[in-house]
Structures are given as structure tokens and as C-alpha cells.
Design brief:
- By secondary structure, this protein is α+β, with helices and mostly antiparallel strands.
- The chain contains seven helices and 14 strands.
- The chain folds into three domains: about 5-85, Ribosomal Protein S8, Chain: A, domain 1, CATH 3.30.1370; about 90-165, Alpha-Beta Plaits (2-Layer Sandwich), CATH 3.30.70; about 175-260, RNA-binding S4 domain (Structural Genomics Hypothetical 15.5 Kd Protein In mrcA-pckA Intergenic Region, Chain A, Roll), CATH 3.10.290.10.
Length: about 260
């Protein structure tokens, strides 16, 4: 169990995940064998890194199937163990469909996978290059999906496993990097300055249920954000808090963010 000194650095709704990380670490130490986690979102990746840090007995690596993946699995292992790509237990798929006559979308792909009863943390990124779509899943459910998924939206599809990671497409990132200067790291302040909207409006959007933080609805406009947090605002887009750059002489905070604005 994580102790108070560890938990106090995290939000109350993150404590359950912190406990999971502690359990994974104990499992490695007790069994002296590697442990692979489910797919983690960027905030969870940041939490794992903060908790394990420079532990003398455990080392860890993240991988999501391709460079700069948003959702990644982590392998925690004893320091003697050399982590290999196969340890992440990720299966990538190509989606074959009649692209001349049909179109498919990210939300349809994700919805179809979830509709098979698959938990969200067993699904990695869903990526696109033109009409080509690929996605990543826990290898333990790969055969099941190959058998069950023959339609996405109104399109007939065939899932084909990708056997070599060099066949993964390189998706174009929609994230636009920015630097902004804030009076605080409050949720509403970050949204206001990031999307260039009045702070009062940002506060209303958050408290009205139009905002999610790390894929969970959060209605506390005063909540302080941490590097790795990703917010989505209905009607506006997504914002990723990348890092704190510096504090200005006037006591304001310079931060690096990335944004995807709704078109």
C-alpha cells in the first residue's frame, strides 16, 4: 500500500492508480520477474515515472507500438532484466476495407472494439494515414478481435495482424505546441489562456460538465493541473499540459502546452 508521503503528491481521484503502481512494484520485487501494465494514458505514464523514479531495484520502459504513442504500456522489471519489445505484449492491426466506397472514423473503430466487451485500457492508439487505419491492442485479445470484428460502422472489414513494427504508419500529429503565461495552474486558467476564452466562460464550461481531464469528467474549476494532464473541452478541442518552463519575475508561470482545436 502506498504511504501518505507518496499519496499527498497526487489528487484524491488518482490515489487508486497510485496504489496499483505500488502493487506492480511489489509484484516485481516479490516474484523477481517483469510485470507489464495495461495501456496507460499520458497522466498515468507521468505518475508511474514519478513514483518509481530512480529506484535501485526496479527499472522500467514505456512503449505503445510506435514512437510517440499517446497510450503506452509499461514494463517494470528487476534491474538485471533486459526489457525487449515482445515484453510489452502489443499486437498491431491493419484494417482492410473497401476505401473506394466507404469511410471509417476513429470513433467508429473505438466504439466497435469497446462494443465487443473490451476494456478501454486494453486498447492503445488508433492511427491514420490517409485512408489507411491501424490500431494497437493487448495481444491477449488479438485473436478474439480478429474473429469477432468484421464490420465497423456500415463497412465490412478484415483485421490483419502486423508482424513487423516497421510496417506501422507514421501518423501526422494534430497537436500544435504553444507556450502561455499563467497566473496559476488552475484548470479554468489553463483552459482560458489555452483556448483564448474568458476565464468566466472556462469556469462555466468546466462546472457545467463540458470538460474532461484525463478522460474523466471533472467539474472542479479550481483543480491544479500537473504535467502530463490532458483536458478535453466540448466544442473547443483538447489541451495537453507538457511542462512548466519557468516562473517570471512577476510571479507568473510560463508553461508549454499542446492544443488540438476543433475545426
Amino acid at each position: 500500500m502506498a504511504n501518505y508521503e507518496v499519496l499527498q503528491h497526487f489528487q484524491p481521484d488518482e490515489h487508486a492508480f497510485v496504489e496499483k503502481v505500488t502493487d506492480w512494484m511489489n509484484q516485481v520485487l516479490d516474484q523477481y520477474a517483469p510485470v507489464v501494465t495495461p495501456f496507460l494514458n499520458p497522466r498515468e505514464v507521468a505518475i508511474v515515472s514519478m513514483i518509481i523514479g530512480q529506484d535501485d531495484e526496479i527499472h522500467y520502459e514505456f512503449f505503445g507500438g510506435y514512437p510517440n504513442a499517446e497510450n503506452q504500456r509499461c514494463v517494470l522489471a528487476p534491474t538485471y532484466y533486459e526489457i525487449q519489445p515482445a515484453d510489452f505484449e502489443i499486437t498491431p492491426f491493419n484494417i482492410h476495407y473497401a476505401s473506394k466506397f466507404n469511410t471509417i472514423e476513429h470513433r467508429q473503430i473505438l466504439g466497435t472494439i469497446l462494443g465487443q466487451g473490451v476494456e478501454r485500457n486494453r486498447i492503445g492508439d488508433i492511427i491514420q494515414a490517409g485512408e489507411k487505419w491501424q490500431f494497437f491492442v493487448d495481444e491477449k485479445i488479438a485473436d478474439f478481435l480478429s474473429f469477432e470484428m468484421d464490420k465497423i460502422g456500415g463497412s465490412k472489414v478484415k483485421l490483419v495482424k502486423i508482424n513487423h513494427f516497421d510496417q506501422i504508419i507514421q501518423p501526422k500529429s494534430d497537436w500544435q505546441p504553444m507556450e502561455i503565461t499563467l497566473s496559476s495552474l488552475r484548470f479554468d486558467t489553463m483552459i482560458s489562456d489555452g483556448f483564448r476564452i474568458p476565464r468566466a466562460k472556462a469556469k462555466l464550461l468546466i462546472e457545467g460538465g463540458a470538460a474532461k481531464l484525463n478522460w474523466a469528467q471533472v467539474q472542479d474549476a479550481k483543480r491544479l493541473l500537473n504535467p502530463g494532464d490532458i483536458a478535453s473541452i466540448r466544442g473547443y478541442g483538447r489541451l495537453k499540459y507538457v511542462a512548466t518552463q519557468m516562473e517570471t519575475k512577476k510571479g507568473k508561470i510560463r508553461v508549454a502546452i499542446e492544443i488540438i482545436k476543433n475545426k
